[in-house]
Amino acid sequence: MLIHSIENKGLAMPTTEEFREEVEAQISRASKQGRLHVEINAGEIHRIISPDQNRHAMACDAIRQLMGPSDRVIHAPPAGDGPSFTVRYALPR
Question: How far, in Å, CA of 83 to CA of 54, rounded?
Fold first, then answer.
């Protein structure tokens, strides 16, 4: 996992790369299990990487960055980013 910068308050700030690494890890695990798809939810990724900070937009960005033509947004909140944002990734990749 990447080492992230420290904010002035002394709290470790996650990076989009850390969120992306977690999404990639979940996709990889699902693929190794022989699944045909995996659904990734921003709120779940956020709780793993940054449970004490509001970084849902970063989680959503990471999820979007890894989308390909066969992947689908299955839920997006009205504002676009939020804990309910969910994508179904087609497997294998």
Answer: 10
